[in-house]
Amino acid sequence: MTTESVDVRRGVPEGAAERVAELYWEAFGRKLGVALGPAEEGRRFIAAHLHADRAVSAVSGDGRLLGVAGYHLAGHGLTGGDAAAVRAAYGQVRGLYRVFLLALLERTPARDELLMDGIAVDSAERGRGIGGLLLREVEAVAAEQGCRRIRLDVIAENPRARALYERHGFHAVKVQRTPWLRDVLGFGAVTTMHKAVAR
Questions:
Q1: Per the count of CB atoms within 10 A, which of 60, 74, 109, 142 is most buried?
Q2: Cα separation of 73 and 147, whole Å?
Q3: Which burial class, exposed, middle or buried, applies to 162 when counting CB atoms under 10 A from its CB (0-12, 13-18, 19+)?
Q4: What pTM was computed for the model?
Q5: pLDDT (tens digit, 0 to 9) for every residue of the chain, 199 residues total?
Q6: Is-contact 84 147, C-beta < 8 A?
Q7: Do residues 100 and 83 lie in contact, with contact meaning Cβ atoms separated by under 8 Å?
Q8: What are the strands, taking DSSP E only, across 92-188?
């Protein structure tokens, strides 16, 4: 399949919340597993708390969701669920610890900044340019919203993602080393990358 047969759309297609949760868990389960696992519970939580208007999606000609890119803008991102929702889903005791872990992952965009929530592409479809299509559409969203830049954070353990972002004009601006989180969340450094938005 070539990228010519892929339709990039704004938002999450109707009825695709569970598929988005599957893709996100496949891409970020290593990082999210401690806070939202086990996998079945984590996928269920993500699907139940999506903001479908904070994504761009790649859909095949036969309607399959091949990939999704989430972003945080104007107060919320693709993946949601506040502390009360976490405690309701996981219980008061289990939920409290999870709220703490999720707070470690929380990021807030600066003014006039679109913050990427991540790109998740079906593992069978990787290497075909879908990530690039999604990034270009996110850039279009950022331009339409008057953002001056796009920001994302990529963990050191994901060099493939960093290479994708660099190919599309993102550059590293800061590396935050967090060796104390390696045993808890599975990564020990995060690189912040920026790309200016053409106006």
A1: 142
A2: 9
A3: middle
A4: 0.91
A5: 566 689 999 999 999 999 999 999 999 988 888 899 999 999 999 999 999 999 999 999 999 999 999 999 888 999 999 999 999 999 998 899 899 888 878 888 988 999 999 899 999 999 999 999 999 999 999 999 999 999 999 987 788 889 999 999 999 999 988 776 666 666 778 899 999 998 7
A6: no
A7: no
A8: 113-121, 149-155, 171-177
